[in-house]
Amino acid sequence: AGIDTRPVFPDVKPGYLREMIPDSAPQEPDSWDDVCADIERVIMPGVTFWHSPHFHAYFPTANSYPALLGDMLSGAIGCIGFSWASSPACTELETVVLDWLGKMLQLPECFLAGTEGEGGGVIQGTASEATLVALLAARSKAVNKLKTEHPDMSDHEIMGKLVIYTSDQAHSSVERAAMLGAVRCRQLQTDEDLMLRGAVLQAAIEEDKAQGLFPFFLVATLGTTPSCAFDNLLELGPICQQQAVWLHVDAAYAGSAFICPEYRPLLNGVEFADSFNFNAHKWMRVNFDCSAMWVRNRVDIVDAFNVDPIYLKHDNQGLVTDYRHWQIPLGRRFRSLKLWFVLRMFGVKGLQDHIRKQISLAKEFEVLVRSDERFEVTAKVIMGLVCFRLKGSNEINEQLLKKINEGRKIHLVPSQVHGTYFLRFAICAATTTSQDVTFAWEIIKQLAAEVLQGDSDGKQGNPQ
User: Fold this and answer.
1) Is residue 93 helix, strand or coil?
2) How far apart are CA 188 and CA 167, in angstroms?
3) In this structure, which of 120, 367, 408, 445 has its CB flanked by the most CB atoms within 10 Å?
4) What distances in angstroms separate CA 309 from CA 83, 173, 319, 456, one per listed residue?
């Protein structure tokens, strides 16, 4: 069965799979026919189909034939590209295609490796990883600076006073990075547009400095997970610069759209950033994992991660990039192949067309929601996400979502901002069409009527 005809969300209970396969590996080889049959029997019933045109949960995860072929070639070559010497093409292609991608985004020159640049790009596994890498690099830089300013303080004492900032809309991975980095994290209040503003950051920094703390890192988000809100980089950037606070910009979802000239203004202020990241594997037709990260000064990252045992040294050390110094793990796959294939086989225009099509589909859904007076749109629709709800209580919206997902014809997830529960409708699969949007809306309308009827019957049956 094709992906569009399968239930988008699986109907299985936790632990279903263990009962369907033996409790130990076979002593003798199985036949491929048996393995293949078990894909359909064992695996497919438990798959959530992220690439179904009826999948509208979370954010998209990208895919395409060129990307899959690039991944296959990476697997076939099978190099572990921790240093230039371990496979020169693996390192050099990554440096070049990240420059290509940086130019598509019109990033400032300082982020491009070029031939003499001080910055450069690297492929991380996820945006969570990129945030952690940036935080650890910023922490290392801050501790070294503070040790010279406060020679009487130990590393432990300095660490205990470090503080990072992010908005109350930022992804949970920021809080987790702070936990892993052993620093305190302050989530700052956003405005009515769910945007973090400069005055709030300035006040927090002054307050913390007055208490003897050391502010050193801010994560600004462009396209938050709950509602695709955008922090105000043009206000936050100059404050970070004045206060010597490392600015990391997380554009995990929205970043792909900045290759379109009409959306590039949303990235204005990136010139103040020390690091910038977005997930090409969300919206740019590159399959997971491919999280593109750029740094203004690569020395900041290399100094934080550099451990050089003799067995990893090589003759060209210091003259070329060794990406093991830019990441948490040592080993790394040849991920730049799939990005290279996609950029070449789609071209910039093909990728722009894909992003514009998906945003236009979200706008179509927004029009449908606004045409029904029972519903409301709860956040501005800027990208491919529509946040909406039934007018009324959180409870009826929870009931609506439960009915939607139990039906398994479409799949959505909720969010909650300032106590208001709402549903998120994301355009995810590359194959999604206007007909799929209309199909989803008809299901939502029908189930909403059932929920509202039940709510009305309940109220009549229980007069106050």
Assistant:
1) helix
2) 5
3) 120
4) 12, 31, 18, 71
pLDDT at 311 (0 to 100): 45
Q: Helical H runs in 330-433?
A: 336-370, 394-407
Return all residues near 379 (Cβ < 8 A) that are at least 6 apart: 194, 227, 228, 229, 387, 417
DSSP tag of 392: S
- Give the C-alpha separation, 438 to 454, whole Å: 24
All residue ranges of the chain with pLDDT < 70 are: 1, 84, 115, 117, 304-305, 307-320, 324, 327, 329-330, 455-464
Q: What is the dihedral of CA 430, 434, 437, 443, to 10 degrees?
A: -130
Structure tokens at 1: 């069965």
State how far the Cα of 313 lies from the Cα of 86, in Å rounded to an integer.
10
Count of C-beta atoms within a 10 Å radius of residue 413: 13
Write down the pLDDT at residue 32: 96
368-385 burial string, b = 16+ CB within 10 Å, else e? bbeeeeebbbbbebbbbb
| Cα 265 off chain centre by | 20
Could you read off the pLDDT of 116-142 as tens digits, one per residue? 768 888 899 898 899 999 998 999 899
Residue 72 contacts residue 293 (beta carbons within 8 Å): no
- How far from chain centre, in Å, is Cα 456? 40
* Beta-carbon contacts of residue 214 (< 8 Å; ≥ 6 apart): 142, 146, 158, 161, 162, 163
SS3 content of the chain, % helix, strand, coil (to 5): 50, 15, 40
What is the pTM for the complete model shown? Answer: 0.90
For 36, 121, 166, 262, 385, the CA distances from 222, given in Å and listed in that order, are: 43, 19, 12, 15, 13
With contact defined as beta carbons under 8 Å apart, do 130 and 124 qualify?
yes
Q: What's the mean per-residue pLDDT of the chain? A: 90
Q: Quick one: how far is CA 70 from the chain centroid?
A: 21
- The pLDDT of residue 307 is 60
Please choose, from the candidates 355, 352, 362, 354, the residue with its C-alpha nearest in 3D space to the C-alpha of residue 382.
362
DSSP, residue by residue, 111-167: G--TTT-S-EEEEES-HHHHHHHHHHHHHHHHHHHHHHH-TTS-HHHHHTTEEEEEE
* 295: helix, strand or coil: strand
Is the distance from CB of 245 to CB of 186 less than 8 angstroms? no
